Amino acid sequence: MTDAAATPTFAELGLPEKVVASLTARGISTPTPVQAGVIPLALEGGDLLAQARTGSGKTLAFLLPLVARIQAGELHHAWVICPTRELAQQAAREAATILGEGACAVLVGGQPAFPQIRELRRNPPLILGTPGRMCDHLAQGNLKPDAEIVVLDEADQMMDMGFAEELEKLVKDLDSSVARWLFSATFPRQVQDAVERWLDNPRTVRLDTSAASSHVPQHFTVAPRGQEPVILARLLHILEPSRAMVFVRTREDVERVSRAICEEGIEAAGISGDLTQEARERVLERFRSGKLIVLVGTDVAARGIDVPGVTHVFNLGLPISAESYTHRVGRTARAGAAGEAWTVIGAMDRAKFARMAAIAKAKPVESPVPSAGAIVDAKRERLAKRVQESLGEKLSLPKCFAPLVTEFGAEAVLAAFVHRLIPDAPPERAPVRPSAAVTGPQGSASVVVLYLGIGMEDGVQPGTIVAMLCHQCGLTGDLIGRMKLFPRHTLVQVRPAAAQRILEQPPHHRGRAIPVRADRDGPSAGPVGRGPARPPYRPR
Asked: pTM value?
């Protein structure tokens, strides 16, 4: 077993000068512990087993020695097998920065096979792909079993995704002289069995195996029954992450939770198996570029997504297992960056979550359910910090504020400005839920048309109105029906219970109270809620 307590430089690990220069140009100067442990062994050859937590730098740990040996002419063909297309494509981009374009072939599903066949005909030294597509090319004779080194990346994920049979086909026909490198974050029974079948007396590097997620600050909140998405949205408001991933259990939860977050005024989007590959790529590109703050997905849909800069990970409900919890938490605080993890559970799941955390060797700290007032306080604290950062700059008071300061004093003007910008929190009230008693003559839900004194000239869109009513008036999206925006006002259909709430507690926009009154004219009447009469609001 290798001890990587003292971290040497990349050059001291035995990497050639060209590879080290490429790393330096990208701002990578110090190896991570797993890289320091793996690279010298990988340069020597033979079978290798590496176990380290998610985000510890395992990809470069196997890519750098592969690239170095290819450049030195020692290695002519190598395979890298990844659980998902995103991981394979990411690894290929890393390798191409050193080897150059054309040195890699990427064999992944969801894309046409012919361009991949064309890449294979060029006989590239490095082939990266997913198990299913690589098996297809092997069976058709496009991929030759001539690899000298086979890398199994994220072996635990591939086993968990049901790729054991495909991996067996890819590995079993290779010559016994082929070196096999297996990398994994966890070491379940399936991975242990695979090591015994495929690896011959492997040298082993194991790091952080006792507490794979202990480096990440972890918290949990117990939410009232049925209010988990609302509490999650409040945490998002308070923590204000730069980039966050929310994990849920099912595809249906992805749509429900992403919609609930949008209704709280936070832009979110989900990924699931229901999306086409093109739609999935669009969502991920928005997330990578920072245009999308919150990404909602299941464990399966989010596998292989390695986006740097994820500051927060949220679990809505219990993960499937302790291993799943560890993988999720490992999506943040990667490669030494800051990050934290939060879990929102119901009261009935407290004991199960405690057992799961104990198995994962994690010690999450319980935090109280955040109140609406806490959100306001957090936003005002962030505003104060931003103001403090600007105090050293040469700024002058706008002339229109000078008379106010003279008459009322700077403190009073500042207080009024802050309260206009970030108003006080509305009283805590339980969200209004649809009532079966409110029905029309044929059993359809009756509606009320409200006039809102805000329109297109104020820069609002239908999504803005939905988020505003849900967040400030405690409504849910299924209580809001058709709406029509005019330059200076909006007409919107709502159910009677929701109308009463809005009239009692008018919303505000940018510190201005919005006039609200009942209006008999407006969009054509019809049932409110989901169904063909009114398609549900989908955030764009």
From this structure: 0.63
